[in-house]
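FORM 7B: Structural annotation worksheet

SECTION A. Query
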Amino acid sequence: MNALIHWLIKYKVLHLLLWIVISFFFLGIDYDESTSLVSQLLSTMVATGLSVPACYFAANKLTPRFLYQKKIRKFMGALALLIALNTVITYLVAMSIYHLLTGLPMFRSFNYVRYICCVIFYYNVMLISVSCVAKIIADRYNMEQRLLEVEKERMSTELNFLRSQINPHFLFNIMNTIYFQIDKVNTQARASVEKLSEMLRYQLYECTTDKIEIEKEMEYIKNYISMQSLRMEKGTDIQLAMDDSLSGFFIAPLLLLPVIENAFKHISNDRDAAKNKIHISMQHQSNEALLVQVRNTFDTTVKEQHLLQSGGLGMQNLQRRLALIYPRRHEFSVQKKGNIFETNLKITYHDPLPGSR
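SECTION B. Predicted structure
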């Protein structure tokens, strides 16, 4: 209840009070002593109220859609059309009310109509412009706050990594020793050690930046699935489908791993291995979007909250990273369908490689 009251005060009451103050401000500017105060007040409040939808539409729709995408001409054209339409609508509605209250005609003379329309037009320009500027300032502030959170998260991750880090040269030397200790006939074990070495090298040396080429991330995922498949029962239905067009853009490193990791951790354990399934699909859309779908069978006696927990980064941590790195540019959903647990992730990346377009 307290949260609801706080939300109403913050987002409704304060906005309403602001528009009332604006109405009185405009009334003070154009106040006519020869006309009833009540009729002028109502007309002004109606005119201001009709500007409210246009202001919110320009700020919340036109600004992100055109201005943020650097489509300046379309943005200015859309604003001009919005202001013109709102001027005409405001004049007709406000003057209709004014006519009903005072009995004065809506169209007294051409000069009168032109003057009123110019005043409404000026007010619309001012209000809509201020609304767009306020939207830009608010979004800039929110973006800076998110960047600070991302930086804090990155520093915390690096600190935790350093605390638990084994000297990479020592680790690779040990792996090379194990590799040469394996009999050459045992090609499968040698291949596994090689893949594990590549995965460790990727995590230690490649994942040092905020974004990495999608090709490298996909190669890491292939190695991970290959390694995990080794511990599965023979005949387990594991499928990986990747679009050939998955190339030419950046993505946050190790972002997709928790979804796949969760599927392997919670796959069902049916005696018939063929009934244990993990199907992974990664598709690329032309509108700079990456679609990832992971479906796995699971034990229906396991509670759903346990399915959402995973080692390492974890599903909850994944959602936090998505909110910080891809705000309003991702869709994430998890659902159960019978004995199938399905995770869908869509990311709009906007990070093409140089020269890929």
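SECTION C. Observations
Residues 309-313 have pLDDT under 50 and may be disordered. DSSP finds ten helices and seven strands in the chain.

SECTION D. Sign-off
Analyst initials: ____
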